[in-house]
Amino acid sequence: xxxxxxxxxxxxxxxxxxxxxxxxxxxxxxxxxxxxxxxxxxxxxxxxxxxxxxxxxxxxxxxxxxxxxxxxxxxxxxxxxxxxxxxxxxxxxxxxxxxxxxxxxxxxxxxxxxxxxxxxxxxxxxxxxxxxxxxxxxxxxxxxxxxxxxxxxxxxxxxxxx
Length: 162
What we know:
This protein is of the alpha+beta class. It has two domains: about 70 residues; about 70 residues, Roll (Chitinase A, domain 3), CATH 3.10.50. About 40% of the residues lie in helices and about 25% in strands. The protein is built from three helices and six strands. α1 runs antiparallel to α2. The longest helix has about 30 residues. It is elongated. It starts with 7 loop residues before the first helix and ends with a strand. The mean pLDDT is about 90.
């Protein structure tokens, strides 16, 4: 067990609850944006009036986030008690790491963009396709890696994978 004192079950339960909460909020925002885009009040008054167009862009963006959260919810519902694989960081693994000396705790997921606070620790759900996800996939506890950022190359160290 890693030194975080947080077990997979506790972490997974918190992540699932956060996904459910976000889904409810994003679903409501998506419906409101869709209603705004199609409302008669949003019809352009002249050729320069872009209210309906802006509302449709917002609705499309919210709809995309809603789809991502539904995918994440489905995936998180399938996470088990045991870490997948052979001890190497892979989709479904929690990874405790240090990036430029700063500790981070991430869950490698099918999709990302979610941060959860669990017992005073910040847990980030990171897509394995993201730059950070790509940098840590395949690493094991004790391994070092590099992450390319806008500021250049950053060093990371994997402390635990579970």
